Sequence to fold (75 residues):
Amino acid sequence: MKIELKTGRFHQIRAQLAHIGHPIAGDVKYGAPEAFSDKNIALAATALEFQKATEDERVHLTIQLPESWRTLIGA
Fold:
């Protein structure tokens, strides 16, 4: 799922997904049926884009999903 944030509210993604009945896997605080053994939740930022403060340049950073999630997503 790709999510683009509109505000910087604390736990915005977690609360909104739980509200529509789809809590994030492992997120028992927001309604997931069970926690992961390592207490993490299946939420990761894989891209970030921002304007440099001192230059007229945008920076775009990306990462791959964590390797440990391959079994979670069936890849």
In short: The longest strand covers residues 47-51.
